[in-house]
Amino acid sequence: MARRVQTRRPMTALRRSPDRVLRFMRLMWKIDHDLQSASRRMESTVGLTSQQRLCVLLVGRHPRITPSGLAALLHLDRGTITGILRRLEAGGFVARDSNPDDGRSVHLRLTARGRKVDRGRRHTVEDAVRRTLDRVPASDLAAAERLLTRLADELADVANSSVSRSD
After folding, report:
1. What are phi and psi of 57, to 5 degrees?
2. Segment (H or E) for 5
3. Which of 3, 103, 110, 153 could staple 114 via S-S, CB 3.0–4.6 A?
4. Alpha-carbon distance 42 to 29, whole Å?
């Protein structure tokens, strides 16, 4: 009786396995869902969504940043940042100051309420990120940053592509 030799799939086939892609995409969707849920919870407890809070954090760390500069830091278009800033201004978290050197532009600053929220950390998305990063070796973090940067670039290519590809 001939003995059957079981062959293994080459490592490259495993790396390209659709199951691997689906597992990763499911994890991305879970993170997105959990981020949205945490953001809604933050809005009810902290008074800001996670996106608004990130804007407050960045304005606090970049005094006199312009709305365009903030949009660039967040990888958002100017229209999106305008809506976020309107809500932050209406809530009393951020104020605009005219640029004395250029009357057409403004600088952003935190108000007293914005500074108070900027100092708080409990029950926030960045607190969860900080706790996670504190538990991860630097080499894992560097690899994750490289992976996420590459994924962001690929997704930007898909979003900006006018030609459909089937590969």
Report:
1. -60, -45
2. none
3. 110
4. 20
DSSP for the chain reads: -PPPPPPPPPHHHHHT-HHHHHHHHHHHHHHHHHHHHHHHHHHHHTSS-HHHHHHHHHHHHSTT--HHHHHHHHT--HHHHHHHHHHHHHTTSEEEEEETTEEEEEEEEE-HHHHHHHH--TTSHHHHHHHHHHTS-HHHHHHHHHHHHHHHHHHHHHHH--S----
Tell me the whole-structure pTM to 2 decimals: 0.77
User: What phi and psi, each to the nearest 5 degrees, are found at residue 136?
Assistant: -110, 135
> Residue 98: in which H helix or E strand, if any?
strand 94-99
pLDDT tens per residue across span 11-66: 555 566 678 899 999 999 999 999 999 999 999 988 899 999 999 999 999 988 99
Phi, psi of 77 (to 5 degrees): -85, 165
